[in-house]
Amino acid sequence: MRFISTRVHGVIDYIVGVLLIIVPWLLGFARGGAETWVPVLLGIALILYSFFTNYELGVVKRLPMSTHLWLDGISGFILAISPWLFGFADIVWAPHLIVGLLEIGMALFTEKVPSYGRAAGGAP
Q1: In this structure, are residues 9 and 73 in contact, taking their beta carbons and an 8 Å threshold?
Q2: Residue 13, domain member (yes or no)
Q3: Residue 45 located in a structural domain
Q4: In this structure, which of 41, 83, 85, 121 has its CB flanked by the most CB atoms within 10 Å?
């Protein structure tokens, strides 16, 4: 059941993108390794592909929403496992795991068609 609108998802995308970029410094785990750069790079990627997504907050509107949601799921998975995958779980793991799982949840529960697509007869 998809109950998160693409408009709400778009707002959250940009907020989470910025937070991912600044969170290593906000939470004090910016040591210059993977613990720092994985969220920063995924935050930059999130903002970029959101900019190009065909939804209410997209600017260029080239990337289908379904592709955007797949990218969110993959990004969330990478973020969630990154502390163990890149070996920094002894430094920090909770923010990466929590935000990664939330990103996966957003991908699973967001509508696939923006409101303007549904009004024009787009597929649900």
Answers
A1: no
A2: yes
A3: yes
A4: 83
Domain holding 70, by residue range, is 6-113
Q: What is the DSSP string of 34-80?
A: HHHHHHHHHHHHHHHHHHTBSSTT-SS--B-HHHHHHHHHHHHHHHH
Residue 63 main-chain phi, psi, to 5 deg: -90, 125
DSSP 8: H
Structure tokens at 88: 């920094």
In a domain, 124, yes or no: no
Amino acid at 2: R
- pLDDT by residue (tens digit) across 78-119? 999 999 999 999 999 999 999 999 999 999 999 999 988 765
Over residues 41-65, the pLDDT tens digits come to: 999 999 999 999 999 999 999 999 9
Q: How many domains does the chain have?
A: 1
- Whether residue 120 is contained in a domain is answered as no
